């Protein structure tokens, strides 16, 4: 089963969030709901990047890599580099 690595952005918080899911659209809805987690602090999350992986193991490995960058600039460069590629309608 395929999995996505995704990056969300909140203008309110001016923060990015990186995660893994099978269903990006459903996951975004959950992030936008009021809850006690990090993404619960805002409801304006938008999808800025998605990347398809063949399985959960590969997606989690990539997620760890992106989170390990600890660099907003590198995340923004990744988003910019891939902005010319249309994100599939999810």
Shape: globular
Radius of gyration over all CA atoms, rounded: 13 Å
Helix content: 25-40%
Number of individual domains: 1
CATH domain fold name: GIY-YIG endonuclease
Which residues sit in consecutive blocks of at least 5 with pLDDT less than 50? none
Number of strands: 3
The CATH architecture category equals 3-Layer(aba) Sandwich
Distance between the termini: 16 Å
Number of helices in the DSSP assignment: 3
Which percent band covers the strand fraction?
Answer: 25-35%
Task: Give the strand order of the largest sheet, numbering strands 1, 2, ... along the chain.
Answer: 2-1-3
Give a nutshell description of this structure:
The chain has 90 residues and is α+β, with helices and mostly antiparallel strands.
Task: Describe, in plain words, how this protein is organized in 3D.
Residues 1-77 form the GIY-YIG domain. It comes from Paraflavitalea soli. InterPro entries: GIY-YIG_endonuc, GIY-YIG_endonuc_sf, UPF0213_domain. This is GIY-YIG nuclease family protein. This protein has helices at 24-32, 56-69, 72-82, and strands spanning 3-10, 15-21, 46-53. The protein is an alpha+beta fold. It has one domain: GIY-YIG endonuclease (3-Layer(aba) Sandwich), CATH 3.40.1440.10. Strands 2-1-3 form a 3-stranded antiparallel beta sheet, with helices on both faces. The mean pLDDT is 91.
């Amino acid at each position: 089963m395929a999995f996505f690595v995704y990056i969300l952005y909140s203008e309110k918080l001016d923060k990015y969030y990186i995660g893994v899911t099978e269903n990006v659209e459903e996951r975004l809805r959950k992030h936008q709901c009021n809850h006690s987690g990090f993404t619960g602090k805002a409801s304006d999350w938008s999808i800025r990047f998605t990347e398809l992986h063949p399985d959960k193991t590969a997606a989690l490995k990539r997620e760890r890599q992106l989170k390990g960058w600890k660099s907003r600039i590198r995340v923004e460069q990744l988003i910019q580099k891939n902005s010319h590629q249309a994100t599939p309608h999810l």
